[in-house]
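Okay, can you check this protein?
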Amino acid sequence: MSSNLVIFALALWLAAQVAAPPPPAVSLIEYYGLSKVPLSRIEEALGVKPGAPLPASKGDAEARLEAVDGVVAARLEAVCCEAGGAILFVGILEKGARLFEVRDPPKTNVLLPLELAEAYQSFLETYRDSALRPGAPGLPPTTQSRLAALANKHLRTVREVVRNSVDADHRAMAAHLLVFVKDKAAAADDLQYALRDPDEGVRQNALRTLKELAAHAAAHPEDGIKISPTWPVEMLNSLVWADRTGAAELLVALSENRNAAVLGLLRERALPQLFEMARWQSLQYALPSYILLGRLAGLSEEQIQQSWASGQRAQQLAAIEKSLGASR
């Protein structure tokens, strides 16, 4: 659905089969959610080091982590790729830690119209083909324009589906389709509601679409699009890796103009989470949080990029931590 979508299913990891090849090797292991529980105890329970294969059973590995004293829940995510191997993200929910809470599943039997659902699936197939095959033609303009026309034709239903449909797949489709509608202010409201959807796929589509709407809002202030930072900031407490990284990317877009409300809420509610993510070894996933911390510390965009590109991340983070700690 988006060129930023990098999580792979890794079916061999989730359901090992006798005849299947060995799981991919782990190139990096990143942790989040750790505050009180010693990292050494988590590493011991995980039993995996860089260079080793991914755990044969995701569920068993999570159960071992959850047996560690002080751990309420654990979550493993394998992401492709770093140095030819998988990045293993290990999420921990400690006792007493804040948790991003989602809504109960909706129960209304409303679905997208068949012509819109079929057009969306055709759009996805065309996109995937152009993205996965080198030299394949890009999306024809008519494909997107037809989808936009149908989304606006059925706007009332799209809005109802994203909020209330019992079908998570249709809610996820609706969350993506809202990027095409003309009433983008209303779409932003629906998408912010969808950020607390019980389904991860719906939340990820909502985050990506809101990121695009944030860029549109910056370029077209006359459209009156308002995107609150409240739920993206709370998502930085999620046990789900994609919630945290997607929220950080959206918050980068929302703070592009150094919005005081966004930065103030980050300072109040998310400093530990941002520092944890900004110190990840995997640079592409660490960068959004590093940018946010630089903005919180009052660094210019040039200073942020220069310190990052020059390899001064650790020194700059130490200075930022001292600065923000002194100002709290």
